[in-house]
Amino acid sequence: MKRRVPVLITALLLSAVLLSCLVACMPSDPDEAAANLENAGYIVVSVKADGGSGVTDYLLPDGCTAYVSAYKKHDLIGEGESIEMYYFKDSDSAAAYMEKNEGWANEINDLIVEKENLYREGYITEEEFTTLKEILESTVMKKEGNLVYKGTAEAVKAAK
């Protein structure tokens, strides 16, 4: 009986960790992700590859089977929360896309500097700059299996 208690506790903790991992993952279905974002008030554009017969295959990255983009305007500023999700046919295609876009963080830093310059020149207020900076700094780019997404923290949460 004494040995069962630690085993039971360990099993319960492991179950809780596994459940939280499942809940924390992005939807593997682009339609589900799009629906989650629409329900959260985002404007959503969703595109699926058409199998090589049209423009979508030309516009999507190599190996990409679906693309979901969502945007939600912030009340204070013209810019807001956003996310881009690329669904690939396999994990290798997703990894290749991540590798090709490894400089994404530099783009975010450049945008922050650009917004700071607008603030210093008097085109936006300090409050607007602070809000924009927080939104931009919350941006992440991650790969989960066949999915690569780049988005702000709130948009990522809404997609799940």
* H-E order: HHEHEEHHHEEH
Number of helices: 7
How many individual β-strands?
5
Instruction: Give the integer mean of the pLDDT values.
Output: 84
Note the beta-strand portion.
15-25%
Key terms for this structure?
160 residues; 5 strands; alpha+beta
Q: In a few lines, what is going on in this structure?
A:
This protein is of the alpha+beta class. It has helices at residues 4-24, 30-39, 55-59, 91-100, 104-120, 126-137, 153-159; strands at residues 43-48, 64-73, 80-88, 140-144, 147-151.
What is the topology?
Layout: H1 4-24, H2 30-39, E1 43-48, H3 55-59, E2 64-73, E3 80-88, H4 91-100, H5 104-120, H6 126-137, E4 140-144, E5 147-151, H7 153-159
Helix pairs in contact: 5-6
Give a description of the structure.
This protein has 160 residues and is an alpha+beta fold. Helix content is 51%, strand content 22%. Strands 1-2-3-5-4 form a five-stranded antiparallel β-sheet. Strand 4 (140-144) and strand 5 (147-151) form a beta hairpin. Helix 5 (104-120) packs antiparallel against helix 6 (126-137).
